[in-house]
Design a protein that fits this description.
508 residues; six-stranded mixed sheet; 6 strands; 63% helix; DNA-binding
DNA sequence: ATAGGGTTAG
């Protein structure tokens, strides 16, 4: 007869080795054998997600009065977080005799859904209750400040707090800081934190490489990679996702190929879907569509929607009707509800003057009731984040924003700017297309930034979609005429506009 | 003899 301890030890071993099926089987056999699970057992079995659903265990945990134990309660909370049930997780959290692990688990729950406010509110409560945070607390709450709508100021304050408590040097905290600063558009601060790290692990190096990649600083990413190799740190698959995407963002096709073979031949790392996806993106953006499709044909995976979207975006550049049709059909069949494929294909037909095909796409969208994904932009002014939706007029300063936009438009037109209406999907008159373009969320956010921040301040804008070509042109011109530095983080990378040009070199 | 929280990617 085995004791509850040996049963639990056996189950724990299975779960830690990802053999969930065997772990769950052991749990069942334990019950059948008449051995009652204890608090350790419940903590272990809750870790067997996604095969074990938290609600299945929750009732038993309540019945056995383990719900308030920090160990069981935290495991339960975390299991709810993993299925996206943050509200249930919070209810569980409120029941627990909270220790610092429970607090950190709740914070990382908010971080997972990018709820910066929820995380910061919880972090404040922790302080009010006189609880002493530790390094995991900081790593979690800082991680909750990486989302596009998070205020950069918030992250900075948490950095200061972590210094005050003496945790800023802990690896998990400093790597979270590198990622946070990079994602907030502040790559210089990210690098400063990276330089101050006394010791580094793989995650530290990867965070810095990915940060540089997102900002299109390929050479700097290579330098960090070289330094890493010099120090005999073995890169992993994630390192190469970072380094190849740095090549992708700058059009360095040969370098990308070099790193890919280095990964496979020298480091013997088996490429994953992400690596193929990077390579397809590398070729697509460089307009090498045949190469891109041959990668797809050769890979041992079904091409994901991301992969076809890269190809389709590349087709827009090269106007390859045949490949774009193939890519769009694949993409539409994978994601019939998403607008991206329809939009891109429609734009390609429009550019090729194929109006009949374009209107058929339009009809298909109407039939399937596909809505264009709404474009959002965020801008931080005086420590507060403002959200703009395309066509938005709900902002209190809406009149002044529009006035500013009109003023800028006429200035730009004098400089020879012509709106690039290729980016408008709707079948409407040219003048109306121009109006739509000039209601894009990033333009609204920029106008608001210009009227509400001092001349010397850098304007930082985040966007949920990729920045459109017309907005990109306009931002370059505006940055020049108003002599301001503007940083835009879109869903793909960062653009630094300064003196009439962009850090992406118009390659994005 | 058994337990819960964190970090890098597209």
């Amino acid at each position: 007869m085995h004791s509850v301890v040996s049963w639990t030890a056996a189950i724990s071993g299975c779960v830690q080795n990802h053999d969930l099926v065997r772990g769950i089987d052991l749990f069942r056999r334990m019950i059948i054998a008449g051995v009652k699970p204890n608090d350790f057992t419940y903590s272990v079995i809750l870790g067997a997600h996604p095969l074990v659903r938290p609600n299945e265990v929750h009732a038993q945990v309540i019945k056995t009065n383990y719900e308030t134990l920090p160990t069981v309660g935290t495991a339960l909370l975390d299991a709810y977080v993993r299925i996206g049930a943050i509200n249930v997780a919070r209810v569980v959290f409120n029941m627990i005799d909270k220790d610092i692990v429970a607090w950190s688990a709740m914070l990382s729950g908010y971080a997972r859904i990018e709820d910066t406010e929820g995380a910061v509110r919880t972090y404040m409560q922790l302080g009010e209750e006189g609880i002493c945070p530790n390094e995991y607390t900081y790593s979690s709450v800082i991680n909750a400040c990486t989302g596009p709508a998070a205020a950069a100021e918030q992250g900075k304050q948490l950095h200061a707090c972590s210094i005050k408590w003496g945790y800023s040097c802990a690896l998990c905290v400093s790597s979270a800081l590198v990622t946070m600063y990079a994602k907030r558009g502040n790559i210089d601060s990210a690098y400063k934190v990276f330089c101050r790290q006394r010791e580094r692990d793989l995650v530290s190096w990867n965070s810095m490489i990915s940060g540089y990649a997102q900002h299109g600083h390929a050479r700097k990413a290579f330098e960090v990679f070289d330094e890493m190799e010099r120090r005999m740190i073995r890169p992993d698959g994630i390192t190469f996702v970072g380094i190849i995407s740095a090549c992708t963002h700058t059009g360095m096709v040969e370098q990308g190929e070099k790193y890919y073979s280095m990964m496979v031949d020298h480091y013997r790392i088996t490429p994953t879907m992400e690596h193929y996806s990077c390579m397809v993106d590398l070729y697509s953006r460089a307009g090498m569509l045949e190469k891109a499709t041959s990668v797809i044909a050769s890979m041992p995976f079904q091409a994901s929607a991301t992969v076809w979207r890269s190809v389709l975006a590349g087709c827009r550049l090269k106007r390859n009707l045949e490949i774009s049709k193939l890519a769009a059909e694949k993409l539409i069949s994978l994601q019939p509800d998403h607008s991206a494929a329809y939009t891109l294909l429609s734009n390609i037909y429009a550019a090729a003057g194929k109006w009949k095909e374009k209107s058929e796409i339009r009809k298909l969208m109407d039939e399937r009731k596909v809505k264009k994904e709404a474009g959002y932009s965020w801008i931080e002014v005086k420590k507060k984040t403002y959200t703009f939706l395309a066509g938005d007029s709900s902002h209190p300063l809406s009149d002044r924003i529009n006035e500013k936009l009109r003023e800028l438009l006429s200035l730009l037109k004098d400089m020879g700017y012509r709106p690039d209406t290729d980016y408008v999907l709707h079948d409407v008159e040219e003048e109306y297309k121009e109006a739509i373009l000039w209601r894009h969320s990033e333009k609204l956010a920029l106008a608001f930034g210009l009227i509400s921040t001092p001349q010397e301040a850098v304007i930082r804008i985040e966007k949920n979609l990729r920045v459109c070509g017309d907005c990109h042109t306009v931002f370059k011109l505006i940055a020049k005429i108003v002599r301001r530095e503007v940083i835009v983080g879109d869903s793909n990378r960062f653009h630094h506009f300064k003196g009439g040009s962009c850090s992406c070199g118009d390659y994005w």
